[in-house]
Amino acid sequence: MLFSSLAFGGEVYDKFPDKINANDKYVFYSHGFIVEGTNPTPKNERWGVYEFPAIKESLSDNDYNLIAYHRPKETDPFKHAEVLAKNVRELLKSGVDANHITIIGFSRGAFITSLTSHYLEETPVNTVLLAGCGRIASSKYSDIKANGELLSVYETSDRSGTCKSLQNRSVNLKSFAEFSISTGQEHGAFYRPLPEWVVPVKRWIKAKSSIQGH
């Protein structure tokens, strides 16, 4: 791939890119638990088909490169978060600005994303959690803290709600923003690229990655 010196991205990767452009921006998307395995469009009896390919297409943008791994079945979330944290550090080592890197995840992917943010305490990046404060908000994981810029999005009909508890214990946050959507689709609202969440999430990513001197 060839990039101009002013390129920001536009590519979609299913593995960590071989070549890094220091001027590019990068977004990691981590899917939900149901997608772990080999099927990119598995179906849940209650929430319908998880449209992983369509979500990747909707989240992709000329402003940044999207990296979205299809995790194998029974992936250890802690080990995968360590892989993502290592990926982020490789980007930073290659000269990519911290504010040009965003990690985003839904449900199990959000748990992994939270862990990744926790592991990146020394080099915080932008973090987006979609229906991410069910498991991570419990007292069992009270030692997990987010760092840097944090955006939380939840569906009002879903059991996974606000990330206020994560915010309160995350002393190194630079900013916290949160909004809810009300589609009536419960967890399934994030199974597909609904504009209710995709549009504001992409707007937030672009705004944070355009801040100078992060």
Description of the structure:
There is one protein chain. This protein is an alpha/beta fold. It has one domain: Alpha/Beta hydrolase fold, catalytic domain (Rossmann fold, 3-Layer(aba) Sandwich). 27% of the residues lie in helices and 20% in strands. The chain has 5 helices and 9 strands; from the N terminus they run E-E-E-E-H-E-H-E-H-E-E-H-E-H. The strands form 2 sheets. It has a 7-stranded parallel beta sheet with strand order 1-5-2-6-7-8-9, with helices on both faces. The chain has a two-stranded antiparallel ribbon with strand order 3-4. Helix 2 crosses helix 3 (108-119). It is globular and about 45 Å long.
What is the gyration radius calculated from CA atoms?
16 Å
- Number of DSSP strand runs: 9
Shape: globular
Tell me the count of domains: 1
Mean pLDDT across all residues, rounded? 93
Unreliable sequence segments: 1-5
Task: Give the distance, in angstroms, between the N- and C-terminal Cα atoms.
Answer: 28 Å
By CATH's scheme, which homologous superfamily applies?
Alpha/Beta hydrolase fold, catalytic domain
The top-level CATH class is Alpha Beta
Structural class: alpha/beta
How many strands, what sense, and barrel or not for the largest sheet?
Answer: 7 strands, parallel
Q: What name does the CATH topology carry?
A: Rossmann fold
**String of helices and strands:** EEEEHEHEHEEHEH
Strand content: 15-25%
Instruction: Write out the strand line-up for the largest beta sheet, numbering strands in chain order.
Output: 1-5-2-6-7-8-9
Number of helices: 5
State the helicity in percent bands: 25-40%
CATH architecture: 3-Layer(aba) Sandwich
